[in-house]
Write a structure and sequence with these properties.
mainly alpha; about 0% strand
Length: about 240
Amino acid sequence: MEKQKVIKGLGFFESFAIYIPAAILMFCFTKYLIPYLSAVTGQETILFWFIVAGLGIFTPMIITGLLILKSEGFPISKSTWIGRLRFCKISSRDILWGFVGLILVGIFSGLIMKGMEFVMGKFDHSPAFMSFEPLSKGRYWLLLVWLPYWILNILGEEFFWRGVMLPRQEISFGKYAWLIHGTGWGLFHIAFGWQLLATLIPLIYIQSFIVQKTKNSWIGVIMHGGLNGPSFIAICFGLI
């Protein structure tokens, strides 16, 4: 007899029993492991962020998500990908929501950044482990390390947070699930420091709301990857 496929609600305590350990792991890696590896090898901290985060955070997220799906009785299949994880065909309505979301994130994040600069003066909002100079001759190889990290980052977070967790949170919290979801996602990034976290607030909540509204996890991929990737490339070449 085929194992029954059950999606149970994910309540407040169950949700934060996932968010908090993930945030602690991120904090320990960025506070202790990455600086240690950089000091020992003499390499830039950004290199070890790519390696440690890709292999130590986002890959385990993917594995954990697969184990959760297995416990629910869902095989690794196209029907699971579309039905359970909600990586559905993108409609024109979905594209519109994603486009509007990206514009709103850009506007509100920009306003927050400008407001912080007005109060505090110019400052580098990037955490120490992410700070690096624009790429120069002999350092372009970092892009080859960044690319698999970026794929694991976007795939890991969107697969686990939006695909695995959000549908279960919607069962528990209904139309307010995006608020719990966004708060937990923000907690996950607390190691980034309050300056960067403040600028991420619009993305954290707007993306969570839109993915819940559209019921399409691809919109999370488009918004998250569409902001994360081009921003990094722009910094690499000194454009921002």
